[in-house]
Amino acid sequence: MKRAFLLLAALLPVFFTSCAEKQEDTLKVMSYNIRYGTAKDGDHIWDNRKEAAAAMVLDQRPAAFGVQEALDFQLEYLQENCPGYVYVGVGREDGEHQGEHMAVFYDTEKVELEHWGTYWLSETPEEPSKGWDAACKRTATWTLLKEKESGRHFYFVNTHLDHVGVEARKNGLALVVERIGGMNPEGYPMILMGDFNVYPDDPCLDELRTMMLDAWEQASEVEDGSTWHGWGEVLDKPHIDYIFYKGFPSCKSMKRVTQPYLGVEYVSDHFPVTAVFNW
């Protein structure tokens, strides 16, 4: 009996370690509308919140995250001040550095980049262009990433739909859906995120919902609410920032990042949102 008890005692740590490893077999991602760095936002200008933005990224530590509205100097700041993270993406105005970037950051300790690209949400997606009734040029950046430890692949797409053009949102998202449908012959898990500039009942989301799942609706743990808040002025509206997915068994959590960092109440006029997926 004593011998059996000692054997059980010896195996228990292995059992609990194994369980912990299974519980940790997850992938965390984040969408962050950073608010463009030249905006005249008074006390909320980029220079007053850039250190807090970096602290937020390091605290949340997603394996990958997409930023919207980011100008090149904001991207460089995050890359320099968030050790381990690098980004890919181009400016929407010229396909190089000019204008807002829908960039993808990834944690080089956790994942590696295999392929990436950017296209424009327009009738001519391969070149810098404005589509339909859009007020601005809009883009989507896609990446194929691989987890270093497991070797598992996943696609990660980041976009920002127009804030004015109804047709531009509808057709732009339809283009993203079409590209997603054709870019993944291997059937890898896929994540689509971004600022869609619509509430959850908008019909432009209908087609997307037929092929991907909305983490706001599927997550076991949800902390929902306004995501665009206008520096704390609008806190009673539905979310307009989304994370959709397919190919993962389940979504563990979908949450807003609402806490202050380094004494700065808001890291943007949007709350970042995070999702944790189970493999």
Explain what you see:
The protein has one domain (27-278): Endonuclease/exonuclease/phosphatase (Deoxyribonuclease I, Chain A, 4-Layer Sandwich), CATH 3.60.10. It contains 6 helices and 13 strands. It has helices spanning 2-23, 46-60, 72-81, 166-182, 206-209, 215-218; strands at residues 26-33, 64-68, 85-88, 104-107, 111-120, 139-147, 153-160, 190-195, 213-214, 221-223, 241-246, 250-256, 273-278. The strands form 2 sheets. A 7-stranded mixed β-sheet has the order 3-4-2-1-13-12-10. It has a 6-stranded mixed β-sheet with strand order 5-6-7-8-11-9. It starts with a helix and ends with a strand.
What letter string, H or E per element, gives the SSE order?
A: HEHEHEEEEEHEHEHEEEE
- The low-confidence runs, each spanning 5 or more residues with pLDDT under 50, are 1-23
C-alpha end-to-end distance:
40 Å
State the shape.
globular
Strand content: 25-35%
- Taken together, the total number of domains comes to 1
CATH topology: Deoxyribonuclease I, Chain A
What is the multimeric organization of the chains shown?
Answer: single chain
CATH architecture title: 4-Layer Sandwich
Layout of secondary structure:
Layout: H1 2-23, E1 26-33, H2 46-60, E2 64-68, H3 72-81, E3 85-88, E4 104-107, E5 111-120, E6 139-147, E7 153-160, H4 166-182, E8 190-195, H5 206-209, E9 213-214, H6 215-218, E10 221-223, E11 241-246, E12 250-256, E13 273-278
Parallel strand pairs: 1-2, 7-8, 10-12
Antiparallel strand pairs: 1-13, 2-4, 3-4, 5-6, 6-7, 8-11, 9-11, 12-13
Helix pairs in contact: 2-3
